[in-house]
Amino acid sequence: MFSGIIRLMPETTKRLFTDDNFTPASVRELVSSLEHKDHLLVEQKQQLDKKDQEIEQLLTMVHLLRQKRFGRSSEAFNPDQLQIFDETQLDELLKQEEPEDEGRVIANTTEDKPKKKPRRRPLPAAYQRIEHIIDLPDEEKATMGNDWVFIGYDSGEQLSVIPRQHYVLVIKRAKYAPVNESVKGAEQGIRTASRPDQIIPKSIAHSSVIADAIANKFIDGLPFYRQAKRYQAEGVELSRQTMSGWTVQLITPLTPLMKLLKQLLYEGPIMHLDETRFQVLGEANRENIQKSYMYVYKGGPPDKPVVWYDYADNKGSQVPVDFLFPSDEKVPESTSMVLVTDDYSGFNALAAHPAIKGHAGCWAHTRRKYHEASQGRNKSASAFQMLGLIGKLYQIERQIKDEPAEQKQSTRQQQAKPILDQIRKWLDKQIPRVTPKSDLGKAIRYTDKLWDKLTLYITDGYIPIDNNPAENAIRPFVIGRKNWLHSGSPRGAKASAMIYTLIETAKANQLEPRHYLEQLFEHLPKAKTEAALIELLPQNFKTSDLNG
User: Fold this and answer.
1) 490, 498 in Cβ contact below 8 A?
2) What is the mean pLDDT of the chain?
3) How many beta carbons lie within 10 A of that of residue 450, not counting itself?
4) CA-CA distances (angstroms) from residue 38 to 44, 122, 192, 262?
5) Considering Cα of 464, then 466, then 467, then 471, what sign does the dihedral take?
6) In what side-by-side order are the strands of the sheet with 292-299?
7) What angle do the packed helices 224-233 and 207-218 form, to 10 degrees?
């Protein structure tokens, strides 16, 4: 038997087992050789396993990207999707202390509803009506004689538009001269009425034109170069550089108003915070390809919200600290707020400030993690289960959204806390079972890491369940960025931040932002006192107060 084994060995190995070479040393050499090869095989297997994981991750990434591009954009969960799994597998996954109605109540589930016949909405009553009367032809009326009598009109309305028209405002300032040298004050010479105050002094453009250009870019996302082409087609030579210059020149007149607006930012119980990348040209000691950032802060009193944009040339953890609590500015001593953010660790330095009494997380980001796990190549029934539980939390929030803070807190303790307890138990069971590098594993560990932040909202009715207010506030900037791509200078970036602040704060206070800018640019130059400036804040703005 032994000789048969030797015959099957390679020639190099056979030689070790010849009568002359079959020694303890040769055996040890053979064992060492085999152990080395074993070690190499283990390493190769580990490398192959690693490559398999990387391939799986890449395939999952490709699948998710295809879903984002070609699939449904909504993260709404449909419980019918659970049917794609084998029933035995599903039972095993969902058996674990699951409530009877688990997975039934889901956020934004769609139900078959009878389709309503579309009805045309009436045109706005405020629009001017211009009548266009259509009568029967004279030939036809002649044949009717006196047998027919006019009884009225059959009326219908069509929306029409008059292409925008530019006009030149001719400003004539009255001049007075004394009738003779004996008149009191004659030594002053000719008296001329003062020039009207302008948002940009000595500008050729009226405030309405400046407001229109600013609104077109920052509300509608129309870059200045495209506006210049439109003006040219209308016979007006107005360059992109001129409009960019207006934006920067607005910094000076807007600064006093912005200081008053920032004071309101500290008067609320909640501070939402988010950021997005931003490319700015001409920054000192930086290449143009380096990224800058636009931060958005949403705070202020619940009934007078403030949405503040702040430009920064970096994403350091000190940026939000220096903005909210600068060393050279006095912050109200009564300032006390809860910070609400996503999981970016750079916000932790701000959360450590004494004026921040808590740091809440975002369930929308958490839900997104499980949504991705549910949409991956290896769809997880457990991910659908968690989406169902999170959906229940959001269902509670929809029911109490109009309730006072005290009632919200009470309802959350009674209804949301048991669901959170269920989620906690589910996490504790899943953590040792699910592969950490899988999509579901990443979602589970994300939830576990942020658990204290995610559950803070049930302790205070003012704390929201997610950071969506900040994400919604920053979205207009992201959309605009896709059109105008970058800011031409740091001062331009600062001016853009100021303008976005006014626009989004106006929206948050139920104002039409274009109209607000038009009125603000017209009346701001006349506001010579702090009281007059306060009246122009979006929170206090009333068109009726400005008439006349």
Assistant:
1) no
2) 83
3) 19
4) 10, 81, 101, 68
5) negative
6) 306-312, 292-299, 270-278, 337-340, 356-360
7) 130
Label residue 303 exposed, middle or buried (CB < 10 Å: 0-12, 13-18, 19+). exposed
Distance separating alpha carbons of residues 365 and 465, to the nearest angstrom: 11
Helices (H), 96-191: 138-144
Q: How many CB atoms lie within 10 A of CB 200?
A: 17
Burial (CB count within 10 angstroms: exposed 0-12, middle 13-18, buried 19+), residue 100? exposed
Q: Are 256 and 240 in contact (CB under 8 A)?
A: no
How many other CB atoms sit within 10 Å of the CB of residue 223?
Answer: 16
CA-to-CA dists, residue 145 to 139, 141, 152, 154, angstroms? 11, 7, 18, 21
542 - beta bridge partners? none
Give the SS3 label for residue 294: strand
- Residue 83's pLDDT is 42
Tally the residues of the chain: 548
Helical (H) or strand (E) element with 23: none
Instruction: Please give the average per-residue pLDDT across 128-155, as a whole number.
Output: 88
Residue type for position 412 = R
- Sequence-distant (≥ 6) Cβ neighbours of residue 250 within 8 angstroms: 199, 200, 210, 214, 495, 498, 499
Cα 55 from chain centroid (whole Å): 32
Q: Is the separation of the CB atoms in 511 and 267 below 8 Å?
A: no
- List the Cα angle 95/453/271 in 5-degree steps: 140
Q: What is the dihedral of CA 411, 471, 335, 457, to 10 degrees?
A: 20
Strand partners, 176: 191
Going by C-alpha positions, the residue among 446, 466, 471 that lies closest to residue 456 is: 466
**Tens digits of residue pLDDT in 144-184:** 888 888 888 888 888 887 777 888 889 898 988 888 888 88
CB within 8 Å of 544: residues ≥ 6 apart: none
Question: Residue 84 has which token pair?
Answer: 């794609």
Q: How does pLDDT run across 335-383, given as a tens digit for each residue?
A: 899 999 999 999 999 999 999 999 999 999 999 999 988 886 656 678 8
Q: Which amino acid is at 505?
A: T
Query: How many Å is the maximal CA-CA distance in the chain?
Result: 144
Whether 486 contacts 292, CB under 8 Å = no
Residue 431, Cβ neighbours under 10 Å: how many? 14
In three-state secondary structure terms, 311 is strand
Please answer whether residues 373 and 84 qualify as being in contact, where contact means their C-beta atoms are separated by less than 8 angstroms: no
* Share of the chain residues as helix, strand and coil, in percent rounded to the nearest 5: 50, 5, 40
What's 493-539 look like in SS3?
A: HHHHHHHHHHHHHHHHCCCCHHHHHHHHHHHHHHCCCHHHHHHCCCC
What's the rounded Cα separation, in Å, for the pair 494 and 475?
A: 18
* One-letter amino acid of 433: R
Q: Please enumerate in sequence order all residues whose Cβ is within 8 A of that of 64, keeping only pairs 6 or more positions apart, or say none.
A: 372, 375, 376
